[in-house]
Amino acid sequence: MNSEAFSPPATEVSQMTHAMPKKPAPVPAYVHLTVEEVAHFLHVSPGVIYELVGEGDLPALHVGRLIRTPRQAFLDWLAAQGVEERHAEE
User: Fold this and answer.
1) Looking at beta carbons, which pairs linking 41-48 to residues 24 or more positions away fall under 8 Å?
2) Do 89 and 29 touch, CB atoms closer than 8 A?
3) How many domains would you assign to the chain?
């Protein structure tokens, strides 16, 4: 049999790799982070971040319908949770 027949498509491989994070992603160097950026860093869905913000557990600013987390407040929150920061590559 041909071994290529059993290889998953490249998109499936990249999805499998993305689904198994080993370390937190670097925190972007922006002043304010979006819900999606915070979720990406923590490897959770944006819905989890909306819950944390809604419960008042994660500091956030509401700008109209947008939610932004000040970067330093997020880093302070991470430290309080016992999580170490990885710096974004600049």
Assistant:
1) none
2) no
3) 1
Rounded Cα distance, 42 and 53, in Å: 14
β-partners of residue 67 are: 62
Q: Which of 25, 24, 28 is nearest to 72 (CA)?
A: 28
Q: What are the pLDDT tens digits along the chain (90 aa)?
A: 454 555 455 554 444 445 555 566 666 677 899 999 999 989 999 999 999 999 999 999 998 999 999 999 999 999 998 876 555 544
Classify 63 as helix, strand or coil. Answer: strand
Q: Is residue 27 part of a domain?
A: yes
- Domain annotation covers residue 6: no
Token pair recorded at residue 18? 């993305």
